[in-house]
Amino acid sequence: xxxxxxxxxxxxxxxxxxxxxxxxxxxxxxxxxxxxxxxxxxxxxxxxxxxxxxxxxxxxxxxxxxxxxxxxxxxxxxxxxxxxxxxxxxxxxxxxxxxxxxxxxxxxxxxxxxxxxxxxxxxxxxxxxxxxxxxxxxxxxxxxxxxxxxxxxxxxxxxxxxxxxxxxxxxxxxxxxxxxxxxxxxxxxxxxxxxxxxxxxxxxxxxxxxxxxxxxxxxxxxxxxxxxxxxxxxxxxxxxxxxxxxxxxxxxxxxxxxxxxxxx
Length: 264
Prior knowledge:
Mean pLDDT: 79
CATH architecture of the largest domain: Up-down Bundle
Strand content: under 5%
Strand order of the largest sheet: 1-2
Shape: elongated
Largest sheet: 2 strands, antiparallel
Number of helices: 11
């Protein structure tokens, strides 16, 4: 009799080592969109709702085939789509399978920047769209930064605004974009940072920086320092207004140096 607790403990330990399985549902796809997209959309929806928690294991391919009424190749295509979005990961071995991944903002931002970079080469989007979105986002971010930034954040902003130019980048453009990224980060709002970073990444790669006169970059440097001063003093309205004026001043510069499609 004394050995029963030990056996129960062993069973519990073994169970703890078994990955959690995702909740199951009997679902069927409709012949409206590609079947793999419908399967991926349903699984994505469950992940976003938290029904499928990070670390939980999805049903096997054969089980998903039965649940959705689709072929195994369709299930595999759906899983590949989710993996490309960093929503699931595949592990090998006895305890392997497809598992819900914990979102990593950095990867998502990088992917979004890459997709945006492709999109701006099409006739549907150009430099004007990017600058308009930026004009809505960054002045509001400067206001929030002035309201929320602590001493360490202000110090980081000032370091970005006053950073010396790299000999490999005489224009200082990379440093200038880093300052704008710091403004977004200074809001303490991750969503704002994620919204603005892809735009900055596209501008880094699609502007002809060498065609800009050095004195123009000097003016940019001075404006960044002035914005930082407003933020340091908690002058929210002034920071917002100056950031808006700054971006409007840059509009013609960016448009002239844009390496977009032939239609730009």
